[in-house]
Design goal:
Strand content: 5-15%
Structural class: alpha/beta
Number of helices: 14
Largest sheet: 8 strands, mixed
Low-confidence stretches: none
Helix content: 40-55%
């Protein structure tokens, strides 16, 4: 692994020792280290399970931000064919932090059937140049207006919509406010609530505040096992409550922003399992699990009459945040 998180270092050290032992055995055929290798393999597996099956909320946030984690275009490439990226909002310009376009979802790979869809999502950068161009996946207003244009196009032709959420938030720059950041996000919420086609939302990494919700209103909301989805990031919450970032772990616990937390609160509909160690450890297995989940929900949604689809979508979001006052 090129990038190790703090809690992964003991495992990496043990894996390095195992690799050294295997290499030594391979070089010197006269030495039988089978028992030692087997014992160390058991220790590695036990430690791996112990670490990744007992992750704290903050550790899941760290995994969601892992620089080797698959991004939106990786999912698009793995799950669709014929993707054609469309650009511009027809008002100001193009925003590379949010990508989208028509494609064919390869549902036949997942027990369904191939179908034309509109896919869109936040896109982070892999290197310094890309991160600057895409602003780490933080869209400007033109990004959300581009998304609105593409979703309305999908509705016009009766095509389902798949969105991938992975953003630290909407871009907070002065130019974004000048061009109507809040209005652009709010407009998308209104438009998505009314679109007469199925919408499947997948939180693949970070889902921060309105920046994520701007393309996050759907009939089904899926979430990867180690993603997070919240009204605010742990660091920002800590800086508001404690005036510094030192309490980010406490904030993550209080926010209850992980997939297990949110399925208990009926904010999401399904947790998509990840390989042990995170999606970046085995992207192929992650794409397979995500594709199967999307296919199953699309099949169910496409059978619904439009009135039932819209009523169910509205009821889903109306029910969030309900409480009883004694």
């Amino acid at each position: 692994m090129a990038h190790l998180l703090d809690f992964e270092k003991p495992l990496a050290d043990l894996e390095a020792k195992l690799a050294e032992l295997r290499a030594f055995e391979a070089e010197d055929g006269s030495v039988d280290l089978t028992a030692q290798v087997a014992a160390l393999e058991t220790r590695v597996d036990t430690l791996r399970q112990s670490i990744y099956r007992g992750l704290t909320r903050w550790q899941r946030v760290q995994l969601a931000r892992h620089p080797e984690r698959p991004y939106t275009l990786d999912y698009v490439g793995a799950l669709t064919s014929g993707f054609t990226e469309l650009h511009g909002d027809r008002l100001f310009g193009d925003d590379r932090a949010l990508v989208g376009g028509p494609a064919t979802f390869r549902g036949s790979r997942f027990g369904s059937r191939d179908r034309a869809v509109m896919v869109l999502g936040h896109q982070k950068g892999r290197d310094t140049k890309q991160r600057k161009e895409r602003r780490f996946g933080m869209p400007n207003p033109e990004g959300y207006r581009k998304a609105q244009r593409l979703m309305e196009m999908a509705a016009k032709f009766g095509k389902p919509i798949i969105t991938f959420l992975d953003t630290p938030g909407a871009y907070p720059g002065l130019e974004a406010e000048e061009r109507g950041q809040a209005e652009a996000i709010a407009r998308n919420l209104l438009v998505m609530a009314r679109l007469p086609v199925p919408i499947v939302v997948v939180v693949i990494g970070e889902g921060a505040s309105g920046g994520a919700l701007g393309i996050g209103v759907g009939d089904r909301v899926l979430m990867l096992e180690n993603a997070w989805y919240s009204v605010i990031s742990p660091e920002s919450c800590s800086s508001i409550l404690w005036r510094n970032w030192d309490h980010k772990e406490d904030a993550a616990r209080a926010l209850k922003l992980t997939a297990p937390d949110l399925i208990d609160q009926d904010v999401i509909d399904e947790i998509v399992p990840e390989p042990v160690g995170g999606a970046h450890r085995d992207p192929g297995a992650t794409f397979e699990a995500t594709g199967r989940a999307i296919a199953a929900h699309l099949d169910a949604l496409l059978d619904l009459p439009t009135d039932d689809l819209l009523a169910g979508r509205l009821a889903k979001f109306d029910a969030m945040g309900a409480f009883e006052e004694v």
